[in-house]
Write a structure and sequence with these properties.
With 156 residues, this protein is an alpha/beta fold. It has helices at 4-12, 30-40, 80-93, 111-119, 139-147, and strands at 16-20, 44-48, 54-55, 58-61, 73-76, 97-100, 123-126. Helix content is 33%, strand content 18%. The N and C termini lie close together (6 Å). 40% of the residues are buried. The mean pLDDT is 90.
Length: 156
């Protein structure tokens, strides 16, 4: 097991990141916030939504395997019941860094997806948000990390 800080640092060292659940209607949508921030910070980000061809003015991909050149890491920002299918796709594609987003609500965390990923050699961060950690953090997310400490794992 590693600390959340170590796991977050390793995840955020990946520069090609897919974000699932990026919405066509982005108002205050967690996946869209993560997508925009990573893009602003110089990451190569890829939106994944099977119901959209474009989001945030960028191409959107139907699934992870459709992303040209693949990715190093995935943020799961969909409903929890979809997370296990995404985790299976990550395992099939050899993606070893996955973050299941969770803010104030239920988020995207699935115990089944977490177990499957870890059984298949994937480092799974099951809660919190990549924007709570450097180099992507802002003041608001740092505060959220403290306020929602129970939703952010201590170790992964």
């Amino acid at each position: 097991m590693q600390s959340i800080k170590e796991a977050a640092s390793a995840f955020l060292a990946s520069k090609r990141v897919a974000i699932t659940g990026v919405s066509r209607t982005p108002e205050n949508h967690g996946s869209n916030n993560v997508y925009r921030r990573l893009r602003e910070r110089g990451y190569e980000v890829y939106a994944v939504n099977p119901n959209a061809d474009e989001v945030e003015g960028d191409p959107c991909y139907q699934d992870l395997k459709s992303i040209p050149g693949g990715v190093q890491a995935v943020v799961i920002g969909t409903r929890p019941e979809i997370a296990e299918d995404t985790m299976r796709e990550c395992a099939e594609l050899g993606i070893t860094q996955v973050w299941m987003h969770r803010g104030p609500g239920a988020g995207s965390v699935s115990d089944a997806a977490t177990a499957y990923g870890r059984q298949h050699g994937i480092t799974v961060i099951d809660g919190g948000c990549p924007l709570m950690f450097p180099p992507t953090a802002d003041f608001g997310h740092k505060v959220m990390r403290l306020v929602y400490a129970g939703k952010v794992p201590k170790q992964v």
